[in-house]
Amino acid sequence: MTATDVFTRFLGRRTTTPKSPREHTWRHLSPLLKLLILTQLAFNIGFFAVLPFLAEHLGTGIGMAGWMVGFVLGLRTFSQQGLFVVGGMLVDRYGVRPVVLVGCVLRIAGFAWLGFAEATWSVIGSVLLIGFAAALFSPAVESEVARQAVVWEEEGHGSRTRVLALLSAAGQAGAFVGPLLGALLLAVDFRTACLAGAGVFVLVLAGHARLMPQHIPGRVRVTEKGGLRLVLRNRRFLALCVAYGSYLLAYNQLYLALPDEVERATGSQTSLSWLFALSSLLVVCAQLRVTRWAGDRLDLRRSMAAGLLLIAAGFAVVAAARPAGWTGLAGLLPAAGYVVLLTLGQMLVVPAARAWVPDLAEEGRIGLYTGALSSVSGVIVLVGSSATGSLLDAGLPAAVPWLALAAVPVMTLGLLPRR
To answer: Where does the signal sequence lie (predicted)?
Structure first.
């Protein structure tokens, strides 16, 4: 059995409707698309084998103060999410292959450096390198998958969202397997986990150096400046960013509002890992089926709208249950309902938003727009998370913060561009 067959079975036995001429989506993908989707799986395995354990390593292993641990983690997020737009511009200018290869080299160096870093300056340098590496190869992979998905759709194989659903499912599969691998490696030490993560990216680097074409047919390289001005003038794209940012803000509550709710209900955060696992498994097992269902019935705008409404319903479930003050297993049920509805909404929103970008971007600027989608949405999450933290600490009635969070995705529905 080939690695491709194993991956296909892991994501689901069928990727299209039965008895359809478009049966077996994976088999119809080009070798380039298969390479990029498997790359997303490998990226996340290597990344999540290390990063979930970084805070514990910095605090306990190295002895950093709590505020410094938070600062380092924030720097990693900024160097990754905030610089996506830079990575996107580099992809448009130099092409996918060189940007991915450089990103892999930087990620290998960053993980190896982090494994041996003990001084604060050394930790900060390695973490910045790790984040910037992702800001290079993630826009490269995502933008080319989106462009190839449009070609796949134009060839009559089905909706482009099916290809992007495979990308999302691959990422979630990696996010699920990575921490399990990291937990096993931590039985040795944190350095071993870092070196194993670097090893994953060595394999990715070798695979891309051998299999990634020097020039991808149809990919236009842009040398003219002024791309950022085009993005800022593109009102329809910025509206999409705001709507997508409301989803990311909701998703960020898995790390902000949900832990508080779980601790209130059970007295500890032990159950939190099970809820995270539930979210990842739902995406791995159901993403392709949900996307297939939506692709047969909804256009991109309606798919995003349905997803945002499901996300709002998840917050509303917790808001409705909070006045009852349930604890124990019963108290966890609203939190589980929020996770399920949020994840279902995510499965509709993410492929639709990524599939929409090529329609809104100028010729040759898809890398820039893919990176800008993440960067602009990241700014929205940064501002929104600060406001959410203030709401949670304001001593308001228990349901109010959750109702406010439910209102955010609803309010962005009217901003979604008309096709």
So the answer is: none
Note the pLDDT of residue 11. 42
Report the distance separating Cα 289 and Cα 110, nearest Å. Answer: 37
- Which phi and psi angles does 59 have, rounded to 5°? -75, -50
Tell me: the pLDDT tens digits for 329-342? 888 999 999 999 99
Domains, the chain, with CATH or none: 1-221 (1.20.1250.20), 226-419 (1.20.1250.20)
Lowest model confidence (mean pLDDT) among 7-21, 24-38, 204-218? 7-21
Nearest residue to 127 (alpha-carbon basis) of 186, 71, 209, 173: 71
125 class by beta-carbon count within 10 Å (0-12 exposed, 13-18 middle, 19+ buried): middle
Token code pair at residue 408: 């955010």
Distance between CA 208 and CA 359 in Å, rounded?
A: 28
With 90 as the cut, is the pLDDT of residue 315 above it? Answer: yes
Q: Using the predicted structure, report yes or no on whether residue 267 has a pLDDT greater than 80.
A: yes
CB 103 within 8 A of CB 376: no
| 165: exposed, middle or buried (Cβ count in 10 Å: 0-12, 13-18, 19+) | buried
Angle, helix 366-393 to helix 235-252, in steps of 10 degrees: 40
